């Protein structure tokens, strides 16, 4: 029957039927949005892909729902689509096995390297000897006492000269500001200083555009889509320079230009001053005087990796932390109480500032930051490949070709792992009966990763976050703009999709 031969009411009726069919198809067979989370239907040819496409904007919550009903482990099949077999897990025993006990069998893998090609051969992206050599060198630099002192000084300087003055100005003006943008600029300032020895002044009044930071965000969002798409599709988009791949290619150009220019600037400075003594920024430690293209590729990859690790984790962590404080004023009150006993200094405008060294002793502040990082891990999932057949503690046989996805976000929301109150923001869970910090194994508190590839910047991140959190809580409080919706952005980094729009209020400082 040709459509043209239908009468108007028949055509209308047919269109309604098709719409109803599509609606019920998604409602009952594909989507888990409108009912209790359930395992997605595996369709012929395309497997569970329709469910991913339908839920991609709510990916973390959707995956958490599935892992909840399946007891922390779930095999996802993309049907006949190549490279689309995933094993999703947030089971601590599997995690300990994958990341530590049988670490060698679970590298990041070739495909990860391909997906994250923007990171080059840097530490996040490499395996085997290439990774080990970089890790040893970076560990030596980051744990050096001079570098640790440099981190503390840069954090304090940036709180005093950039963060507090910016917030004081915003409080005076009475305009709403995006607090997430502010914290990402704050950590961008510190990280650029630590990595390149240069302060980009990204938090100056007027908030200059920071093309590098925008490019990094675009790149990470585009990379997530590579995870959710068959390789042939994103490679085709890359060839055609379309969609998310076009965005990624543009981001790459901006990132490379920034790194190239900054390295050149630093190199020229080094030549001019002929400094031979230890310089605390990481770039200076890597510049060896040679100027071959090979060294520049190495420097480019190293610095891009450090910028990613350094800026995003702490900036995003601070944003979720302050949002949680706004929902839980009793926690903010306890932090203020704890800060009363800490020695204080004053800025030229009479605002209170703390010495990073003094803040290392605070139990409640550390517990509250850890709790925010538990509930909103800045890296919400990890990706591993499989070298050879291996039985996981949960009974799943991991085989080459299957990708293992570990959901850090979901792990925080499993009653079996964190107890019945797992979804609550409760710093007290980190404090033992004797008032000291409670140890939680890193295969359970996975926010900084676990095993031989655990985060190298954890202490540095806590130093920056405590310096900002203590001074900001002491001098200001915030109110979320009415009607502003807080929801995670779908990206490799757990940013807030719409930012964190707040009004800033100056607190009457308690001496
Ligand atoms: C709250 C802040 C931070 C969080 C939550 C965080 C989290 C993580 C996570 C989850 C990984 C594992 C990534 C992967 O293998 O896929 C990682 C690795 C790493 N992080 Fe961090 N990070 C933070 C801050 C920093 C800082 C400030 C630095 C310093 C530059 C840093 C340096 C690194 C490095 C070098 C690695 C690679 C380790 C390796 O593969 O051997 N991180 N981090």
TrEMBL record:
GO terms for molecular function: heme binding; iron ion binding; monooxygenase activity; oxidoreductase activity, acting on paired donors, with incorporation or reduction of molecular oxygen. The keyword Iron applies. GO terms for biological process: lipid metabolic process. Keywords: Heme, Iron, Membrane, Metal-binding, Monooxygenase, Oxidoreductase, Transmembrane, Transmembrane helix. CDD domains: CYP86A. The keyword Membrane applies. The chain crosses the membrane at residues 6-26, 62-81. Heme binds at residue 455. Its cofactor is heme. This is Alkane hydroxylase MAH1-like.
């Amino acid at each position: 029957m040709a459509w043209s031969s239908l009468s108007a009411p028949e055509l209308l009726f047919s269109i309604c039927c098709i719409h109803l069919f599509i609606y019920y198809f998604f409602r009952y067979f594909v989507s888990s949005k409108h009912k209790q989370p359930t395992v997605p239907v595996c369709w012929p040819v395309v497997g569970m892909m329709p469910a991913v496409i339908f839920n991609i904007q709510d990916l973390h919550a959707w995956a958490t729902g599935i892992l909840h009903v399946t007891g922390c482990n779930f095999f996802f099949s993309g049907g006949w689509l190549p490279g689309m077999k995933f094993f999703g897990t947030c089971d601590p025993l599997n995690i300990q096995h994958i990341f530590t006990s049988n670490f060698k069998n679970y590298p990041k893998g070739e495909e990860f390297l391909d997906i994250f090609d923007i990171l080059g051969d840097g530490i996040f992206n490499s395996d085997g000897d290439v990774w080990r050599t970089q890790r040893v060198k970076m560990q030596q630099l980051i744990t050096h006492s001079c570098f640790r002192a440099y981190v503390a000084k840069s954090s304090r300087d940036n709180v005093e000269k950039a963060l507090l003055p910016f917030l004081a100005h915003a409080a005076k003006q009475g305009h709403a500001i995006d607090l997430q943008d502010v914290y990402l600029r704050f950590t961008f300032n510190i990280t650029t200083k630590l990595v390149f020895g240069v302060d980009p002044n990204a938090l100056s009044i007027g908030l200059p555009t920071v093309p590098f930071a925008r490019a990094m965000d675009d790149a990470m969002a585009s990379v997530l889509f590579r995870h959710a798409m068959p390789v042939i599709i994103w490679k085709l988009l890359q060839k055609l320079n379309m969609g998310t791949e076009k965005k990624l290619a543009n981001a790459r150009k901006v990132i490379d230009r920034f790194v190239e220019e900054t390295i050149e600037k630093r190199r020229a400075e080094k030549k001019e001053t002929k400094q031979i003594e230890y310089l605390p920024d990481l770039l200076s430690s890597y510049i060896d005087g040679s100027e071959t293209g090979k060294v520049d590729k190495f420097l480019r990859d190293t610095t891009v990796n450090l910028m990613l690790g350094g800026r995003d984790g702490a900036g995003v962590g601070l944003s979720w932390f302050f949002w949680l404080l706004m929902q839980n004023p009793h926690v903010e009150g306890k932090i203020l109480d704890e800060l009363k006993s800490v020695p204080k200094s004053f800025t030229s405008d009479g605002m209170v500032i703390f010495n990073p060294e003094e803040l290392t002793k605070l139990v409640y502040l550390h517990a509250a930051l850890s709790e925010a990082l538990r509930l909103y891990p800045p890296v919400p999932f990890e990706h591993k490949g499989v070298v050879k057949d291996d039985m996981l503690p949960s009974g799943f046989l991991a085989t080459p070709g299957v990708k293992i996805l570990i959901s850090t976000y979901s792990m925080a929301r499993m009653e079996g792992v964190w107890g019945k109150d797992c979804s609550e923001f409760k710093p007290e869970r980190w404090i033992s009966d004797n008032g000291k910090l409670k140890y939680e194994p890193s295969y359970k508190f996975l926010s900084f990763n676990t095993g031989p590839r655990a985060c190298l910047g954890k202490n540095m991140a806590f130093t920056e976050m405590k310096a900002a959190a203590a001074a900001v809580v002491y001098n200001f409080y915030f109110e979320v703009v009415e009607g502003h919706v807080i929801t995670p952005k779908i990206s490799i980094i757990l940013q807030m999709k719409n930012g964190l729009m707040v009004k800033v209020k100056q607190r009457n400082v308690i001496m």
